[in-house]
Specification:
4-stranded mixed sheet; Hypothetical Protein Ta0175, Chain: A, domain 2; globular; 8% strand; 201 residues; 3 domains; alpha+beta
Length: 201
């Protein structure tokens, strides 16, 4: 009797997780996955040989690139992180090392051929008013992916974790608390916590 109840509860959990699995799979993979493939990915305990081969090809591509002149595709980073997260710890040890991505280059300033001449009362610009700040996504997962590009160090409840683990945590639970420390001379530090840190900490 208990065995039947256990099977029913397991089946019910799988059916409840199916929509979330499909959303995450379609949202973070470069190839579209059918619902059947998405369910198969959720059920599997480790990455398939084809997924490991795909990961190794992408990792090798970025590991062999010149670090000064890397051309990075955001879809590749998301796919690498997804595939690395699917692997068991043994598969991760045997696979190619996860690439270290340099921070993104600063945005290029547009070149103007002539300096703009501003005369008092000759235009509608308010010279004392600062320009609006750039639009930055406030979604937690976007923030974590941006921090991966900046080679941030990640901590979950004060224990060091990899960037792929940080992304996996946010994919599972977007209500985790994130605190980012930035420094002038070193990479950022991102603290992910199950509950918000108190002011006394």
């Amino acid at each position: 009797m208990e065995n039947q109840t256990s099977k029913k509860s397991t089946l019910l959990r799988m059916l409840l997780l199916l929509p979330l699995t499909i959303f995450l799979t379609l949202g973070f993979s470069s190839k579209e996955a059918t619902p059947k493939e998405a369910l198969a990915m959720k059920i599997q305990k480790k990455a398939s040989p084809a997924q490991i081969k795909e990961y190794n090809m992408l990792a090798h591509k970025y590991n062999t690139m010149d670090k000064e002149n890397m051309f990075i595709k955001q879809n590749d980073v998301a796919r690498l992180t997804h595939l690395y997260g699917l692997m068991s710890s043994n598969q991760q040890k045997q696979a190619a090392s996860f690439p270290v991505f340099p921070p993104p280059p600063p945005p290029k300033t547009p070149k103007t051929s002539k300096p703009i001449k501003v005369t008092k009362g000759g235009n509608n610009m308010d010279l004392k008013k600062p320009p609006p700040p750039p639009v930055v996504s406030k979604a937690p997962l976007d923030h974590i992916v941006r921090m991966v590009y900046e080679n941030a160090a990640f901590f979950f409840d004060d224990q060091r974790i990899t960037s792929s683990k940080a992304i996996a945590l946010l994919q599972e639970n977007e209500s985790l608390h994130i605190e980012t420390e930035t420094f002038r001379a070193s990479n950022p530090i991102v603290h992910i916590r199950t509950k918000e840190a108190s002011l006394n900490d």
